[in-house]
Amino acid sequence: MSMMKAVGVTRYLPIDQPESLLDVEIPKPSASGRDLLVQVQAISVNPVDTKIRAPKDQVEETPRILGWDVAGTVVEVGEQVTNFQIGDEVFYAGSVTRAGGNSEYHLVDERIVGHKPKSLDFAAAAALPLTSLTAWEAIHERLGIPEEALANSGHTILIINAAGGVGSIATQIAKQAGLTVIGTASRSETSDWARAHGADHIINHHDEFVPQLQKIGISNVDYILCLNHTDQHWQHMADAIAPQGKICSIVETEQPIDLEALKNKSATFVWEFMFTRSMYETDDMSEQGVILNRIATQIDEGKLRTTETKRLHPINAAQLQEAHRLLETGDMIGKLVLEGFES
């Protein structure tokens, strides 16, 4: 049996524990059905990695492999694959119900894979899939915002945590769609980053939204995309949303939220979970491949840009521990990527 390097979890420990992530060797899989076998060139980390790895009383008999951002090369295709061939350079986020991509080779369903942007190297491309899928689905599907910029003239969106991983691409996608983008940030460096990526205005998420919006001449906002502490911001969002407006969040709540706060405004609240399509194998699962290809085209046309801010090498347990540690500080701007397994 052929083996491959991977970084896995057997016990769920704080990231400062040496055994929180381990260098392991596991069997190299092979492709069948609609799966591609991808040689992993670069990966990125997301909050989903740290949430799954968070301390709990559970032990894995075989190492659990995390990682839901991959850029790499197709080395094998299943017999039902129609969209890809050996040698194609791809990028994708994968499925949370399957093994993640922190391994030398990785199996992924072709329907949720895109062709890597030609203008980016593997590491810069690995920064994009999970966050761009999340942002695109949230903006264009959950909030129902048209892609045509003319249709959105005069409309506003408030993006909470505009300089984070999803925020960094959401500000770009929202600006590309012709919206006036208000981002939240609380530090000068996050404010500058959000402005550089499409935010027209910045407000502080630690203070009430409405008075800050009024200062920039905005009485309420048509859309809100919440990328941080849904329950903490709930009342401020309810106050700031326009009558018949829409709020979308990607962050689970710690306390029940008061939906009645939206009743008089006939406002909509909707969740976005990027893994829904792959988790339930929905009829439109292949839409994620379509979105990734559109993101790649817009990157290559210079309309969007990668949100990579830090690059580590090589892909191993020590470097992934550092990546998780940085992510857990909550101060991360943009995306952190790792490239290359040592041979």
Explain what you see.
The protein is α/β, with parallel strands linked by helices and 343 residues long. It has two domains: 3-128 and 284-339, Alpha-Beta Complex (Quinone Oxidoreductase, Chain A, domain 1), CATH 3.90.180.10; 132-271, Rossmann fold (3-Layer(aba) Sandwich). The chain is 28% helix and 29% strand. It has helices at 47-53, 122-126, 129-142, 165-176, 188-196, 209-215, 230-240, 276-280, 287-300, 317-328, and strands spanning 3-12, 22-27, 35-44, 56-65, 70-77, 89-92, 105-109, 113-115, 156-160, 180-184, 201-203, 221-226, 241-249, 268-271, 308-312, 335-339. Strands 3, 5, 6, 7, 8, 15 and 16 form a seven-stranded mixed β-sheet that branches. It has a six-stranded parallel β-sheet with strand order 11-10-9-12-13-14, sandwiched between helices. The two termini are 18 Å apart. The mean pLDDT is 97. It is found in: Cytoplasm. Belongs to the zinc-containing alcohol dehydrogenase family. Quinone oxidoreductase subfamily. Keywords: Cytoplasm, Metal-binding, NADP, Oxidoreductase, RNA-binding, Zinc.
